[in-house]
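hiii, so i know i said id send this last week but things got crazy w the move. better late than never?? heres the sequnce for the chain we talked about at the cafe, plus the structure i predicted for it. fair warning i was half asleep when i ran it
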Amino acid sequence: MERTKYPNNEVLEKWVVEIFRTDSFLAINKTLIQKLGLMEAIILSAYIDKHIYFQNKGYKNNGWFYFIHSDMKKQLCIAESTIRKYKRILIKNKILRIKTEGIPSKEWVKINFTALMKTVGLDLMNVLGHNISKGKHNYRSSTHKKGPTKKERSLEYLPLATKLSEIVSSTINITHTTNQIQSWAYSICQLVEDNKVAPERIVKVLSWYEKNIGAEYVPVVESGDSLKTKFTRLETAMNKKPVVKKYPPKFYDGIRYDYDTKDGYWKDIAGNRYSD
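okay and structure toks below
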């Protein structure tokens, strides 16, 4: 039997590196698997990678891109019927949007990051903050030998930007576009990388802001840029203990003080709070 002839070590090394390079693998987030299911997470991860691919290429189609089933089948080694089945589930959950246009007609896909965030919930924010603080980034591209640009790295912060969009939309009847949310993610990336703010602090501030938005002395944040510029004020307000004035209850100098059972304080006619 004829023995297989291998090339020299240098050429063989190039072959092996090319075959087993990290960007030949599909990274699947554990939180996606837990919240969506394994197959749904695999299909969605493939679409997210394709979304990043078109972003890196500079295509500006308002978040729309194409990924035909035959190409996904080759990439994932999954039957097209399986791809269609679990893609329908993602569409039903409004995580994927589909449209057909062009001559010849082609199916275009768009990831609804807001719906994804609502489905996955705050858990993804916590995982995101942990992974980024540990220097774990999922973006890999053979075309960027020096690593991803800040614009590309900002895609890591889309869940945080999406969460901010939900908080703002809960008090103001407004819908934010995908481009706006991506711009907010870039502002959050600047906050982390330029201002050295740990992602865990942003997660904590957003959680607090969601519960206290609109309250007195709480800075108004309505965009990623305002989150970046007002972050320290938000964090200060979050850590500030309420000032409670010591004063006799009921009457004092002819002023009436009523006990508010909801807040647990005595209040005067101006709304100032006092402890017993």
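btw The chain has a mean pLDDT of 75. thought thatd interest u
miss u guys!!
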